[in-house]
Write a structure and sequence with these properties.
By secondary structure, this protein is α/β, with parallel strands linked by helices. The chain is built from twelve helices and 13 strands. The protein has two domains: 302 residues, Arginase, Chain A (3-Layer(aba) Sandwich); 69 residues, no CATH class. The strands form two sheets. Strands 1-3-2-4-9-8-5-6-7 form a nine-stranded mixed sheet. A four-stranded antiparallel sheet has the order 10-11-12-13.
């Protein structure tokens, strides 16, 4: 597929508003598609940056369509970090006549990139673009896990049309369904209806309160490591750090905490796409949020180029294996510890071939310790019930 037909150049007047980039800056390493050069060749590319200037389905955040070029402006001023980067910037997806046309373009581009082992980094736009990202996996026939970093679940109301606050319902109800698991990181309880929390529990989805996550940030790593697709709502960052959002709140993650989450995502061998949404330059303070999101993406890329390639799907010779029997030998949990990274996984019994990619669940040393104390790890039990 020739994906260049879906793109228009990035705005060079914004990108180069402060002049040329210094030697070693990303702006001299990653050449953006600005119209003055040809569309990037995708041979030998690891990561592709995609801008999506679409906000017609925003909720109280009109103007977030402007975000991609403002993020680029600051992203290209950052230095490479010593990595040999193989990154292409494809420009911005053309705004469709109808919003569904934009969704189709996004899903088609993401599908093509993933098929060619290129990881898309989407800079939106409103978060309903997450739905378009998900549709790419439907075309690939791949059952996936989705993780969102968000203060809400974005389920919307039963009668709600697809928008940035209801896209998750559309994903859950979409048929055929290719969602195996959903996890929310950082929801704030006073923004979430208790019925929605009960629904998440009935679906065996994983939800983590903001305070719970911030109390032990290391426990975020296995959550994110289990994702095929990650969607980050900038409003999940506290307003003092990221004011450029119509739904920004006093509480949320600190900027450096979001950078840490992004790096965890980059380190994950399983993750194959990521999106950053809801940044609204019209509401920014001295372009502070654009600069922060640029740094968050930098940390993701730094994680990507430090991947250990140690997901133990086939060859388990590079792992230490631990077997733990709990509840009077009713269950046996097999743990694997990577000799390369010291990261942990646990095996969940599964007979269905279509779930092969999901029967090894990322976990932490704390999960192993819990099992040794006869406490069933929540991650294992959630997955076990899905397979049962």
């Amino acid at each position: 597929m020739e994906i260049s037909v879906y793109f228009e150049p990035a705005d060079k007047d914004i990108l180069y508003a402060d002049g040329e980039f210094s030697k070693g800056m990303l702006g001299n390493i990653i050449k953006p598609y600005t119209g003055e050069n040809s569309f990037p060749v995708l041979d030998d590319v690891d990561i592709a940056i995609i801008g999506v200037k679409e906000d017609r389905k925003n909720v109280n955040n009109e103007g977030c369509a402007l975000a991609p070029d403002y993020v680029r402006k600051y992203f290209y001023k950052l230095f490479s970090g010593g990595h040999e980067l193989k990154i292409a910037d494809l420009g911005n997806i053309k705004r469709g006549f109808d919003v569904n046309d934009t969704y189709f373009a996004v899903s088609s581009v993401v599908e093509e990139l993933i098929k060619n082992n290129i990881l898309p980094v989407i800079i939106g736009g409103s978060q309903d673009i997450t739905y378009a990202n998900y549709l790419a996996y439907e075309q690939l026939g791949q059952i996936i896990n989705i993780v969102t970093v968000d203060s809400h679940f974005d389920l919307g109301k039963d009668e709600a049309d697809l928008n940035s606050h209801s896209y998750l319902s559309k994903i859950i109800l979409h048929q055929p369904n290719f969602l195996f698991n959903y996890a929310n990181v950082g929801y704030q309880t006073y923004f979430v209806d208790q019925d929605a929390i009960e629904l998440m529990k009935k679906l065996y989805f994983d939800i983590y309160r903001l305070g719970e996550v911030r109390a032990d940030m290391e426990e975020v790593e296995p959550i994110v490591r289990n994702a095929d697709m990650l969607s980050i709502d900038i409003s999940s960052i506290r307003k003092s750090d990221a004011p450029a959002n119509g739904n920004a709140y006093p509480n949320g993650f600190y900027g450096e905490e979001m950078c840490r989450i992004a790096r965890y995502a980059g380190l994950s061998d399983k993750l194959s796409s990521i999106g950053f949404y809801e940044l609204n330059p019209r509401l920014d303070k001295e372009e502070q949020t654009s600069h922060l999101v640029a740094q968050i993406i930098w940390y993701f890329i730094d994680g990507f180029y430090n991947r250990k390639h140690d997901f133990p799907l086939k060859d388990k010779s590079d792992y230490l294996q631990y077997r733990v029997n709990i509840q009077k030998n009713k269950y046996e949990i097999v743990f694997y510890k990577s000799k390369k990274s010291d990261r942990w996984w646990m095996e969940v019994p599964c007979t269905a071939d279509k779930y092969e990619r999901h029967h090894l669940i990322p976990c932490s040393y704390n999960d192993y310790q819990s099992a040794c104390k006869e406490d069933m790890p929540d991650r294992w039990w959630q997955a076990y019930q899905k397979f049962s």
